[in-house]
Fold these 2 entries.
Entry 1:
Amino acid sequence: MSLVKASVVCKYWHNLIESSWTCWKRLCFLPQWQLSPQSSKEQLDRFIIQDVKENEDEANNHLAVLWKAIFIERFKLRRAWLKGRCHVRTFEGHSGGISCVQFDGSRIVSGSHDKTIRVWNIKTNSKWSVLTLTGHSGEVRCLHLEGGNRLVSGSTDSTIKVWVLDIQKEWSSIDCRVTMVGHTDT
């Protein structure tokens, strides 16, 4: 807050504070502004820009990080967390109890006693953002969502299924690639 207030003193201070990327970078690495390693990497990827100079070869181009924008996002996140401000969403659709949940940055996957798996798109509020996977003849008891597009589910029907979730903005393709049998109990 002090830097923002100081930046309105005069044009020189404003330009100095705006261009001082080391100041904003140093703030981002203070303990109270740290994110998890995964979240930090994702945020950094969003705020990297390629600084392309006209009439120069590619060797002189370099990546620039918008440290002030990163800090502003972290500041807003921490302030909302400390004041208890959050956006609560309720995902409805299973007809039985939920037995397991997995999630990543864009989706939540839930397994249920109703023998189905649901894939929820957390970036939209549309009722069409829910995909239902059927195939187990018993309740789904465990899930493992791998980083890319693979989901593994285990059920009381003594099977393990490997699903491929190919979800794009325009279309979705979900398919059970393999059903593993051999267990004699849940």
Note: The two ends are 56 Å apart (CA to CA).
Entry 2:
Amino acid sequence: MILEGRLVDAHFGPRWGQVEIRDGNIARVGNLGMRPDLKLGESQLIFPGFVDVHTHLRQGDEHKEDFTTAMQAALNGGVTCMLDMPNNPVPPVTQEMLAAKEKAVAELPIDIGFYVGVGPGTRPSGHRHYKAFMGPSIGPLFFHDDADLAETVQHYQNCRLTMHCEDPEMLRQLSDAPSHEASRPEKAEQQAITTALGLARRYGFRLHVAHLSQAGSLPELMAAERHSWPDADGLPGVVWEATPHHLFFDWDNRKHYSRNTFLKMNPPLRSASSRAQLLEAFLAGFIHFLSTDHAPHTIEEKSGPNPSGVPLLDTYGSFVSWLMAQGMSARQLCRHACELPGLFSGRKVGRILPGYRGHLTVLDWNQPWTVQAEDCRTKCGWSPFEGVTFPARVSYTVASGRLFRHGFEVT
């Protein structure tokens, strides 16, 4: 496959050029002088496929999502590599327990990697990615207090641990608060981040803070990043991410959106001023990854017990266009949506360079998108962004050299 158009990478562009993909990988990039299979226009930008390092693909709860529908939602949103969290009904807590997951995705054209769960009494098993829930969230895999957490993570020296940072003792004390937001305040996240950073320093593991929801912890995180040892790929020893829902929605503006009662997640939405500070930090490049925390639940579930989590894979690329409309350049977005999460994944993804996976995403500014449920491919069949008009939409996604449009392969 040969694509031609305006290429953008974290280290170059936008610039006009061609990409040749052979055997699922990028073979050549530049002014190749070849006849393209797909020639794109000036209104379109060709990104490396987006990389989402935080998704919940629901093995064991396939009525919410399965690997095929998750792939379609990802391709609809321009995501070609993602990492799946371990808080399944039967959490994988050893590398060997991932065998069924890895077999299920082996033939898919996108790259899907997995986290191994860290819980009371677990030990490292030679895997690249581990996830620890410091306090209760969705699923059975979490710690009840900091002492249990410390007893376990002391064994994970030189590992990369992703942590859901909410202080368990504070959550217990606030369990009877009048609202979900009040029961999981910013100070619970801030205290947990301080604890996680202390444990990382003490026991020598690399830390990834999941779904940062407030900017108050950034000075502490950035100081820790400066004093951390980078890994073999050059990624800092301390990294963190933010999600579309924490960057876009807040306590005040949520009432304007059609799915406002579904906007429940852990950690919860914050105040308008807190959201503004977080967005400012992301636009300034102070947050490493744009990750969705894609967490699908059915409409029936959200209309009843309303478990925490929202689906966001379908809208990843369009949200990137919204961030660009807020002032972020295409190259900056490539760094935080492609290159850095690609390094974190450990796979050859996130760059438009020979030897990297043949994954590309095309954003088209001639296609503003007002999100509708029927345009989403996630099995749960809804989006928190329904009714929102984004500046651009993903018109094509290339995964391993295969062409997809709106989640379906073009044949």
Note: The mean pLDDT is 96.
